[in-house]
Structure formats: C-alpha cells, structure tokens
UniProtKB/TrEMBL annotation:
Domain of life: Bacteria
Alphabetical UniProt keywords: Cell membrane, Membrane, Transmembrane, Transmembrane helix
PANTHER family reported for this sequence: LIPOPOLYSACCHARIDE BIOSYNTHESIS PROTEIN WZXC, PST FAMILY PREDICTED COLANIC ACID TRANSPORTER
Organism: Pseudanabaena yagii GIHE-NHR1
Keyword Transmembrane among UniProt keywords: yes
Positions of transmembrane segments: 99-122, 128-146, 187-205, 308-329, 335-351, 372-390, 396-416
Full protein name: Lipopolysaccharide biosynthesis protein
Localisation per UniProt entry: Cell membrane
Matching InterPro entries: Poly_Biosynth_Transport
Membrane topology: Multi-pass membrane protein
C-alpha cells in the first residue's frame, strides 16, 4: 500500500514539473520570436528615425492610435472564453465564436471607416482619412483564424503564436524599411501592417485542425458575452491607457510634438512592452491550466512574479541608463530632445507586467469584472494626470505616465495578490477537509 502511494506521489511530482516546465518553454518560444521581432524592429526604427520627419511620425501616430481604439472591439473576450472554458462546452462555444467573430469584425470594419472622418476633423488633417480606412481591411481577415488561435493558446501550443507573431511582425518591419527608403512617409509605417495580416491567418489556419461546420449558430452566445463583456471592458480601458497620452499630446501640443513623443515611446518602451506582452500571453493559459488545483494555482501565480522581475528589471534599467549614449549615436542628433521622455517612459514599464499578472490571475478565476472596475478607476486617474501634465509640454506628459503607473499599479498588484492568496488557501483547506471526510 505504501509503495502504491509513493508511486502516485512520484507521478504527481513529475506532472507538476512538466507543467511548470511548459510555462518556461512557452516563454522560451515567445522570447525567441521576440528576439527576431526586436532585431527587425530596431533596424526599422533606426531607418525611420533617419528618413522620416517628426510630422511623418505624428501622422502615423494619429492613424495607428485611431486603429487601436477601434481594434479593441476585436479583443472582446471571445478568445479568452475559449481558453478558459470547460472541455465539454468547447465544441459548441467554438462554432458560436466563429460566427460572433464575423459579426463583430464586420461591424468594426464599418465603424473604423466611418470614424475616419470625425477623427480627421478633430485633428484638422484630412490626410489621415484614407490610411485609417485602409487599415480597417485587416478586420475582414481576423475571423478566418481567430478560433484556431484561441485553441492553440488553450492547448499551450504557444510555439504557434511565436511563429505567427514572429513572421508577421518581422516581415512588417522589413517592408517598413523598404517603403521608408522609397520615400513613402507615414505610409511606410501604416501599409505594411495591412500587407502582413494574411500571414497571421495562414500560420494559425495551417497549424490547428479545427474547422467550422459553416452551419450558422449563436448557441451559448449569452455565456460568451457574459464573460467577454468584462474582458472587453478591460481591453477598452487598456487601450485608453496606452493611447490617451497620444490623443492629448496630439490635440494640445500639435503633430510635431506628438511625433517626438511617439518616437520616445516606441524607442523606449517598445522592447519592454514586447517582453511584457510575451509574459502576459504565456501566463494566462498557464494559470487556467491549474484552476482546479488551488495550491498549484497559487504557486504558479506567485512564481510568475519572480520570472517577471528577472526579465523586466535588468532590461528596463539597462535601456534607460544607456539612452543618453545610444539615442544620438543610433537614431541621430535630431532625437536628443526625446531622451528625457524615453527614460521616464521606459521606467514606467517596471510595475506594468506585475499588474498584468494580477489581471491574468483574476481572469483565470472568473473575476474579469473586478479587473474591469479597477481599470475604470485607473483610467480616470491617468486622464486627470495627463491633462495636468500637458501644461508642461511633452515632458509633463511623460512625467504623468511615469507617476501614475509607479503609484497605482503596485497598489493594485498587492491587493489582487492578497485576495488570490486568501481564496486559494481557503479552497485548498476545503479540498483537504472534503477528502478527509470521504
């Protein structure tokens, strides 16, 4: 009897080790993908900094910011529900999700084309109407492979995500370099993002066997919407947080000032955000995998902070400390004024992945509505800080970004971590007591 128990314990130990290794393997795949992306993006950033004007950067920022605000409605939580759903409900949810994606993406395409006109009026620049409409065509491709992408994430096959993102973004950057040399101005940044969209579709479609039956159904749509509405709300708030500084700088300081700020943001936070997004992509399915094991869930959640710290802290401190040397050397003397902005924005990255990990923890235990409420509060705080900071120009905007993230994000992370710890401890105790009773 004792030997059997020991054997079972050994099997459980091996399974746990494999699950833990899977998270690291996923980070490895995504990290390798990001390495290729960062090399190509660095080359693109250098070329753009040398060949494009601040006005070109500003116009591209307006187009991409508009696209980000509309694009958020494609991140409506449908994919997250597929990742989080019970196995028995999965076939029905996938069929419904496929048709919901077509409905949502079709409406988003029309909305962005219509929005191009009031946006051009708001910024008093009709040059941005056509590129905004052209970028909207991407939405007509997304539904072809969104279910496959969600299922690949659910199955922790993040090497597929790494392949899709790595190829897509690297080709995007290469095309950007070519078009910049050809003198296409802001189109060098905008057009490649449309041209590479089919790559994402093809990679996921070829690497996952799921196919729709093409029989229209909206069964279980209420369940998807119930979960997805809070996820969508969180994504909307995140989009506001990530783009509100562009909107305010562009509206109150002008296109050239926005161009300077946009360069600083991308040159400073681009590398860090890639690492942050990689961690977030790998962590959510990793946590969902342990939903039925409270002690394992808690262990994975808190271990993720150690992984985040090891990756983010050295990266941010190295990049921010070297900024005064590499900016004029690599990007040119005309961007020296962006160095203080770059350093502040770069340092603001430190608390972000920890707050994102807290959000993933709440999503995994079916509490995205709590994360949504927090993001509403944070967005209001952030908007007020930016409106105050803009009175001191783009430097004031950068200071506002740094301070809000440095104050609010750690507070949120501590609160969520405390809650998850209590809940998982309680569920572990209940599970032990139930086992002893039976």
């Amino acid at each position: 009897m004792g030997g059997s128990i020991l054997a079972v314990q050994q099997i459980i130990k091996v399974i746990k080790e494999k699950l833990a290794d899977r998270f690291l393997r996923n980070l490895g795949w995504l990290g390798l993908s990001q390495l290729f992306i960062r090399v190509s993006r660095l080359a693109a950033t250098i070329v753009l900094a040398r060949l494009l004007t601040k006005e070109d950067y500003g116009l591209a920022a307006l187009v991409l910011t508009t696209n980000e605000f509309v694009n958020v409605f494609t991140q409506n939580g449908i994919w997250a529900k597929i990742v989080q759903a019970d196995e028995a409900d999965l076939p029905e949810l996938c069929e419904t999700s496929y048709w919901l994606n077509w409905i949502v993406c079709g409406l988003v395409f029309l909305s962005q084309c219509i929005a191009a006109f009031p946006v051009s009026w708001f910024y008093n620049d009709p040059r941005i109407i056509l590129p905004i409409c052209v970028m909207a065509t991407v939405y007509l491709m997304i539904p072809m492979a969104l279910v496959q992408a969600s299922l690949a994430n659910r199955e922790n096959r993040l090497h597929v995500s790494a392949l899709a993102n790595g190829i897509q973004v690297s080709v995007d950057n290469i095309l950007t370099i070519i078009l910049a040399f050809l003198g296409w101005g802001m189109w060098a940044i905008v057009l490649p993002k449309v041209l590479v969209a089919p790559i994402w579709v093809i990679v996921y479609y070829r690497n996952h066997p799921w196919r729709p039956t093409y029989k229209f159904t909206l069964s279980k749509w209420q369940e998807i919407i119930r979960f997805g509405r809070s996820v969508l709300g969180v994504k909307v708030m995140h989009t506001l947080i990530n783009n509100l500084d562009y909107v305010i700088a562009g509206r109150f300081l002008g296109v050239e000032a926005l161009g300077l700020y946009y360069f600083a943001f991308n040159a400073g936070l681009g590398i860090s955000m890639s690492a942050i997004n990689t961690l977030e992509t790998a962590l959510f399915p990793h946590l969902c995998d342990a939903r039925s094991q409270p002690s394992e869930f808690k262990s994975r959640y808190f271990k993720s902070f150690k992984s985040i710290a090891w990756i983010i802290l050295p990266l941010v401190f190295l990049q921010s400390s070297l900024a005064p040397f590499y900016v004029p050397l690599i990007f040119g003397q005309k961007w020296i004024a962006a160095i203080p902005l770059l350093i502040l924005i770069c340092l603001s990255a430190i608390p972000r992945p920890f707050a994102n990990a807290a959000s993933s923890g709440l999503w995994a235990i079916d509490k995205p509505d709590w994360d949504f409420m927090w993001n509403i509060l944070f967005t209001g705080f952030f908007a007020i800080a930016l409106l105050i900071g803009v009175n001191w120009g783009v430097l004031g905007v950068a200071i506002a970004v740094f301070l809000t993230h440095s104050i609010a994000s750690p507070a949120y992370t501590v609160w969520v971590s405390s809650y998850i710890s209590r809940v998982m401890d309680r569920e572990t105790t209940i599970a032990i007591e139930t086992k002893e009773t039976t």
